Amino acid sequence: MELSGARFCCVLLSLFAGVASGLEITSTGPTSMEKASGQSVKLDCQFSLAPEDSGPLDIEWSLLSSDNQKEDKVVILYSGDRAYEDYYEPMKGRVHFNSADPKNGDASINLTGLKSSDSGTYQCKVKKAPGIRSRKMLLIVMVKPSKPRCYMEGPAQEGKDVMLRCISSEGTNPLKYTWEKTSDNKLLPASAVLDPVGGSINVRNASASASGTYRCTASNRVGTEECTLYLNVTPPPNTAGIVAAAIITVLLILIIIAIILFCCCRARHRKKYEKEICNEIREDVPPPKSRVSTARSFTVGSQRSSLGSMSPSNLHEYALKPQYDKIPSSEEFERPPSHAPLPPPNAVKMAGPNLSRMGGIPVMIPAQNRDGSIV
């Protein structure tokens, strides 16, 4: 019984010695790394083989799924003395074995042009029958902050609260914001309240001494970016003067509108009055007298011309016509034909040849009716 127990112990020791001397992962580096997007990283996986590991060598790198319901994604393979580097489409051309011949004990890989989607847990699995070993590593790809935008909220007036804000649109959390004054005494106002997470600084009851240039810096574990802002605190505006100016402006506009309306109404009234006057003139205008006046001028002219052409020989003939010795007055001429005086009975009619010989011009006087209208 004692011999059998000793033999059993020797068998167990030999078995443990075989396992210990078989395939092993020898990398001792960190199992968690943080890198910035765009950088490169080496995932270390060194291994050693034992003489009894005589099977084919297989190396597999996979990106483990955070959901147990989903399959792991194989990134790169080495099998049958051949590397398959373009196995995973999202990392095509960006993942390579660190060694040209991984059989030498280096199963490490290099990832280039890191993206935030490359973050996750990677597993290196080395198989060479009968041995099999694996190693896991956590990779966190962080995005550095983008250039932040600095801006101001609220009026920059004395006695008011002024809010300065700084926001970076990209960057892996946690992001931290810091503010500093870069002009004058380079000290933040005593009333300033900082929010390092939200990226704001609230300058309460601002004064002229708060004016100056401010710089905001956004940072995380992989990078920093900054922006600047100039704050100019001004005295409050004269509110009473602004209100008075507004009232005066409104009154001037109302006066101008009233003047325009008054002018338009007056012009319309004048036009209407002129139109009514024209209508009254057409209805009440007396009969025209222009032709009677013309006839009178013709008669007077003919008499004067007849007097001018008289000679002593025919003067006695003209003396026989007393109706031509004077020019009729306007009352006699405007008298209706029915009241016109008849020529004396002994008047001698002037014949056409005698009138022509005396240098006179016969004139036709138009006939008129009783109311004076020309027929």
SSE inventory with pairings:
Layout: H1 2-20, E1 24-25, E2 32-36, E3 41-43, E4 47-48, E5 57-64, E6 73-79, E7 82-84, E8 95-97, E9 109-111, E10 120-128, E11 131-142, E12 149-153, E13 162-167, E14 176-181, E15 192-195, E16 200-203, E17 212-220, E18 223-231, H2 239-284, H3 290-308, H4 315-319, H5 330-334, H6 352-357
Parallel strand pairs: 2-11
Antiparallel strand pairs: 1-4, 3-9, 5-6, 5-10, 6-7, 8-9, 10-11, 12-13, 13-16, 14-17, 15-16, 17-18
How is the biggest beta sheet arranged?
A: 6 strands, mixed
Strand order of the largest sheet: 2-11-10-5-6-7
Low-confidence parts lasting 5 or more residues at pLDDT below 50?
1-20, 291-325, 345-349
Rg computed from alpha carbons, rounded to a whole number of angstroms: 63 Å
Q: What is the succession of H and E elements?
A: HEEEEEEEEEEEEEEEEEEHHHHH
Total count of helical runs of at least 4 residues: 6
Estimate what percentage of residues fall within beta strands: 25-35%
Averaged pLDDT, please? 77
CA-based shape: elongated
Name the structural class: alpha+beta
Region (Disordered): 286-312, 329-354
GO molecular function: cell adhesion molecule binding; virus receptor activity
Transmembrane segments: 242-265
Domain Ig-like: 23-139, 148-234
Distinctive features:
disordered N terminus, six-stranded mixed sheet, transmembrane helix, receptor, 375 residues, four-stranded antiparallel sheet, transmembrane, 18 strands, alpha+beta, single chain
